Amino acid sequence: MLFLNFFYALRANGLKVSLQEWLELLQALSLGLAEPTLLGFYQLSRCVLVKSEADYDRFDQAFAATFESLEHTDPITQELLRYLEHTVEQQPYDKDEADRRTNLTPQQLFELLERRLQEQDDVHNGGTKWIGTGGTSPLGHSGYSLTGIRVAGEGQRNAAIQVATQRKFRDFREDATVGVRQYQMALRRLRQMSSRQDAAAQLELDLDGTIAKTSENAGRLELVMAPPRKNAIKLLLLFDSGGSMTPYAQMCAKLFQAASKANHFKDLQVYYFHNCPYHLLYKTPECVYSQSVETQRVLDRYAPEYKLILVGDASMALWEMRYYAGGRASRPGDLPGLMWLHKLVSRYSHSIWLNPIPERYWGVTKGRDSILRIQSEVSMYPLSLEGLERGLKSLIARR
Predict the structure, then answer these.
(1) CB-based burial of residue 129 (10 Å sphere; 0-12 exposed, 13-18 middle, 19+ buried)?
(2) When comparing pLDDT for 322 and 69, which is higher?
(3) What's the pLDDT tens digit per position in 214-233?
(4) Distances from the Cα of 224 to the Cα of 192, 210, 229, 241, 364, angstroms
(5) What angle is formed at CA 303 by the lines to CA 301 and CA 305, rounded to 5 degrees?
(6) Do the Cβ atoms of 187 and 198 come closer than 8 Å?
(7) Average pLDDT rounded to a whole number, residues 322-336
(8) 339 pLDDT more than 50
(9) What is the DSSP letter of 311?
(10) Neighbour-count burial for 205-226, b at 16+ CB within 10 Å, e otherwise
(11) Which of 40, 279, 334, 353 could pair with 380 as two cysteines, CB 3.0-4.6 Å apart?
């Protein structure tokens, strides 16, 4: 029953596990392709059932929810924990003998632990029976056993439930909100994708490769061409700041941090706006007039080859998009915000808008009308791994 529950848990967590894949897992188990441990089953089932690393976290959650009942939860006394404070080194042992003796089911392990908790009254390390360290007992830590229950200490063989509950793969989820590390990786991919896109037009002579190939050809010249190593990406990054963007300030700060530390841009320019770009852009998130620059000067200064990324929730009243000052303490301009957005997108044909609001809420959130209107001007993507990947591909696509 527990095994069948695992199948339904996987489906409930969004993994599209087919009956054919489930039968393949059963066949793999019958062929003995997994060690007879919970960890072995975890590794085999993940290998068979998971198609992408983006689903590892969903798999781990389903696995932990299904098999957490197999974890031992009886309280361990402080006295016993003191027995385990001083670890001894693992002594030589007969692996085959230890495997035969410790090949126990979870239920057998729990029953054994309960007996040892009642019987043991002293420290015993390096042995085969008691709860200790450095031996081949299935109870304790820092030793070896085919199956066992770790008591205190640091995991070395990674019991399956512990592996699953660590959720090491949460950052691989395509629907995860992006952090600094993911921003850095994504921005690095921007350069890589752009290099591949422009490779045919910007190849240069690879001198070392040419020498190597010519030597292999016994002196017959063979030219080797390669994409240039110099950074070619020029990026204009505009952040919405203040108001409804306040809950996303930390997210934007992470993106700014990742972009500013990146060394794979030929040029990076960062400005701020409120709600929608108006006749002024700002050099700081506070959006104060003393730290402003005319939007037209930005358009004149930075050539169309720049790639434009606007970051904001796009949520505002429609009248604010037709406003001339953006609610800032400055003199109104001569064009409404929507027209300035149109001018920016027209100037920089490679433009995208990144929205921190999950995409499934765009049609129902308070700012749904303004989101729809901005989408009519510029392609919008969510700030998730999957959304950022789609957005960056769009950003470098030939127009």
Answers:
(1) middle
(2) 322
(3) 888 777 888 887 765 556 78
(4) 20, 5, 14, 48, 55
(5) 155
(6) no
(7) 67
(8) yes
(9) E
(10) ebeeebeeeeeeeeeeeeeeee
(11) 353
Give pTM, 2 decimals: 0.51
Contact indicator for 299, 344 with CB cutoff of 8 Å: yes
Tracing tokens 């990144």 back to the chain, one arrives at 354
Q: What sign has the CA pseudo-torsion 186, 188, 192, 198?
A: positive
- Tell me how far apart the alpha carbons of residues 134 and 5 are, in angstroms, rounded to a whole number: 36
Q: How many CA atoms lie less than 13 Å away from 167 in the CB half-sphere?
A: 11
Cα dihedral 72/73/75/76 (nearest 10): 30
Residues 271, 284: Cα–Cα separation, whole Å: 7
User: Cβ atoms within 10 A of the Cβ of 177, count?
Assistant: 16
* pLDDT more than 70, % of the chain: 70
The alpha carbon torsion through 213, 217, 221, 224 (nearest 10 deg) reads -20
User: From CA 249, how far away is CA 48, in angstroms rounded?
Assistant: 40
The dihedrals phi and psi of 76, each to the nearest 5 degrees, come to: -100, 125
Please report where in the chains the tokens 């990947």 appear, as a residue: 389
Instruction: DSSP for 73-136, please give it.
Output: -PPPPHHHHHHTSSPPPPPP--HHHHHHHH---HHHHHHHHHHHHHH--S---S-SSSSEESSS
d(CA 117, CA 321): 70
Q: Residues 127-180: pLDDT tens digits?
A: 777 777 777 777 766 677 777 766 655 544 444 444 555 555 554 454 544 555
Buried b vs exposed e over 264-291: b needs ≥16 C-beta within 10 Å? bbeebbbbbbbbbbbbbbbeebebeeee
Q: In sequence order, which residues have a C-beta less than 8 Å from that of residue 162 and are 6 or more positions away?
A: 150, 155
**Angular region, 144: left φ>0, alpha ψ -120 to 50, beta rest:** beta
